[in-house]
């Protein structure tokens, strides 16, 4: 699996639709200060489900939508699509090419798509779990992240190895199942109370 293409429209400084094709090997992005290099990695993290406006260098999520220039009016929505080559089947979905899209309107309404079919953010998170690609995955190493990894608590470092070992999916499912179990236990206690009152 590898990232083949990035399409950006209305996201930060990218007002017009731009498609960036990634070839095999290393791709370097060069440009003057403030030309939008970091906005490209912000776009990748955003489409993968980043929910923190601060970590996208804004104060509210709406800040990712193109806010206009002296010559151009602001836009009403931002849209980013990542296209992955999945010929090796690393992503658990029966397609050799997988696209994921996130769209955000100024109204705050948000949409997510997998292969152009509307889905939930949860579906995107689950698709990339244990691949290293997710929002918290190790495929995006931001400035200061190496220091953070080296100096962080051993439990935090462990989560990186768990993602690489492919067990995050099972841990997440276990937590969800435990929550359901607790809810069921609570319901049982309530039912027993009601039965007690009726007897
Ligand atoms: P440096 O080399 O200094 O790190 P860079 O090439 O990484 O710079 P970015 O930080 O990606 O640049 O881009 C910053 C530019 O993006 C600024 O000019 C800023 O005005 C513009 N920008 C950020 N958000 C928006 C937005 N919502 N609408 C329009 N332009 C935006």
TrEMBL record:
Binding site for ATP: 32-39
Subunit and interaction comment: Homodimer.
Highest taxon listed in the record's lineage: Bacteria
Extent of the signal sequence: none
Domain notes: Contains large globular domains required for ATP hydrolysis at each terminus and a third globular domain forming a flexible hinge near the middle of the molecule. These domains are separated by coiled-coil structures.
Subcellular location: Cytoplasm
Protein name per Swiss-Prot or TrEMBL: Chromosome partition protein Smc
Its job: Required for chromosome condensation and partitioning.
Shown part of the complete sequence: 1 to 199 of 1194
Coiled coil spans: 167-199
UniProt similarity note: Belongs to the SMC family.
